[in-house]
Amino acid sequence: MKIATFNINGIKARLPRLLEWLDEFAPDVACLQEIKSIDENFPRLELEERGWNVETHGQKSFNGVAILSKEPIDDVVRRLPSMDGSDEDEDEQARYMEATVRGVRIATIYLPNGNPRPGPKFDYKLAWMEQLCAQAQRLRDSEMPVVLAGDYNVIPKDVDCYNPVAWVEDALTQPESRGYLRTMINLGYTDGLRQIQPHGPAYSYWDFQRGAWQKDNGIRIDHLLLSPQAADRLVDCQVDRIPRGKEKPSDHTPVWVELNV
Questions:
Q1: Is this prediction's pTM over 0.90?
Q2: Span 83-102, average pLDDT
Q3: 144-166: per-residue pLDDT in tens?
Q4: Taking CA 115 as the corner, what is the angle to CA 109 and CA 118, rounded to the nearest 5 degrees?
Q5: Of the N and C termini of the chain, which has fewer Cβ atoms inside 10 Å?
Q6: Would you state the torsion angle of the CA atoms of residues 135, 138, 144, 145, taken in this order, to the nearest 10 degrees?
Q7: Distance from chain centroid for Cα 127
Q8: Distance set, CA 190 to CA 28, 36, 131, 220 (Å)
């Protein structure tokens, strides 16, 4: 079972690239972020005609997440549950959705950027991450295989950035941001990519400016975190760089994990 995460940076602008990638790579599940579309305008028919089941949690012009699956998508939760897990949070920003496919609980996550910092946007990012950690613990305790897939807007370590000095003041590298990601790892989650490729750069994002792609000036912010039950089934996890080199690409490229399910 191949599960991919892909920040597409706008479904309207990237639909041809998305359809092309889905046909060529053929994941079982694709977790999308930054669809930048309300649910009613998402190109559901184009995808369903190709055999995809589609669930979305959209927002006009900003944010938005989706799950595409070749198999049924069950028990969908839109919005990150509140700290105590009693209900879905009333966050107006569409950044989180989770569902079950073939017995695997899968979340698509678009974590807040947090810039500029200090300020309300960074405070929102940290509060959101605290809430995500609480949900990650609840999901881990369910003892299901869990995959938390998405654009985390966190550069875990300096090796995950082409020039750490240039990012030292950025919200993506702050100790608080990295600390919450470590908290999730300490809960028992495995960084799928680093389990397969423990060393060296493995970028998933290149800015559109300053020839970043051509120079390979990238950062790693798209992650697949696996619960113990999912990590036990890990076969492979890689960055698919091919879509980033296409015409009119997203500034992100897919990262995928294969589980023995």
A1: yes
A2: 86
A3: 999 999 999 999 999 999 999 99
A4: 125
A5: C
A6: 40
A7: 18
A8: 21, 29, 19, 16
Q: DSSP letters along 130-157, please?
A: HHHHHHHHHHHHTTS-EEEEEE-----S
Give CA separation, 68 vs 6, 59, 136, 162, 168, in Å.
Answer: 11, 17, 21, 31, 36
Tokens representing 10?
């706008």
Give the E-state strand segments of 82-143 in sequence order. Answer: 96-101, 104-110
Q: If you classify domain 2-259 with CATH, what class do you get?
A: alpha beta
**Which contacts qualify for 157-166: CB closer than 8 Å, 24 or more apart?**
159/199, 159/200, 159/201, 160/201, 160/202, 160/203, 160/219, 160/220, 160/221, 161/219, 161/220, 162/201, 162/203, 162/215, 162/216, 162/217, 162/218, 162/219, 163/217
